Amino acid sequence: MPDGGLPVIARFEVRHRNYLAPDGSINRPLPAFASDADLLTALYRAMMLLRNFDRKAVALQRTGRLGTYAVSLGQEAVSVGIASAMRAEDVLLPSYRDNGALIWRGVRLEEILLFWGGDERGNRFSGPVEDFPFCVPVGSQAPHAAGVAYAFKLRKQPRVAVCMFGDGATSKGDVYEAMNFAGVHKLPVVFVATNNQWAISVPLRLQTGCETLAQKAIAAGFIGEQVDGSDVVAIRAAAEAAIAAAREGQGPRFIEAVTYRLGDHTTSDDALRYRSADEVQARWKEEPIARLRNYLVGNKMWSKAQEEQLAAECHERVEAAVERYLATEPRRPETMFDHLYADLPGVYAAQRRELEGEGDG
């Protein structure tokens, strides 16, 4: 025999979760919360607000009033669905594309614009005070998440760290090491990989040989689940289950949210250089907002009048946030030295005085 007749000592499996088809029809019995019309419409409203906000942020960048910006087009269900399953006392460790989660947890739109406008005051946001700031280096927040979860375990606090990153991050050592540590110590942490098929310009098949990203959790000793990332009901249900398990002391969980990035990686990218317009157009049929809208309308939970009102509300809220952002007084240059040292070294103190107009120059 090719395998020498060696015995099988272990088998593993990865489950896939999905409830809503792209047309809004139901694939299998829905979780209990899906009967709550108020919750489903809240999820829909949050995704619509995020899409409108992204559209305006891109316009601001194109007109020189915002820095490089990462849109969530096509991925709105992931960040909104995950955040909606968290408690206020849990801690979110987001990547740079998780604005939907921040907004759900109370971050103001103008604070997000401040950050992307190059003002670090945007990271001193209105959400839960212990939530982590935007993380731009890919995957570097994963070890922080393991550390936060370790602190929760030491303190015997029923809290969970939720760490979000993209598919490319799962090929980084930071993520593997964090998952391994979390698995060994059975930490209350949920890792969420948004598999949008493209690690910047690199397709999934060129950055990992794994059939699924979820199976990477198996090597670390815990459960990984693959979820339809364009189905906000599936994302919410998977997050609820994973967070509850982590909170109850069952150890870490891993969620692979399979979705598609319909926009460029950032406003500095041109995705047409590495993927075809036909591919993107085909994926529009799967996008999450139309999917949930179709379900809501089909079940008489949403109307044309509500849709028109929501569009007006989103426009008004986004425009008001932009006005507040643009009206924010820029930080004075000398504030770059704030929060660096308890006692500022002399060489830096002199530079600060010079910027304040007190130096000889």
From TrEMBL:
Organismal lineage: Bacteria, Pseudomonadati, Pseudomonadota, Alphaproteobacteria, Hyphomicrobiales
Keyword Lipid biosynthesis listed: no
EC number(s) stated in the UniProt entry for this protein: 1.2.4.1
Protein source organism: Bradyrhizobium australiense
The name of this protein is Pyruvate dehydrogenase E1 component subunit alpha
Q: What does the subunit section of this Swiss-Prot or TrEMBL entry state?
A: Heterodimer of an alpha and a beta chain.
From the UniProt record, which GO molecular function terms apply?
A: pyruvate dehydrogenase (acetyl-transferring) activity
Q: SUPFAM superfamilies attached here?
A: Thiamin diphosphate-binding fold (THDP-binding)
Q: What would be one Pfam family of this protein?
A: E1_dh
Cofactor(s) needed, names only, are: thiamine diphosphate
Keywords for the protein's UniProt record, in alphabetical order: Oxidoreductase, Pyruvate, Thiamine pyrophosphate
- An individual GO BP term: branched-chain amino acid catabolic process
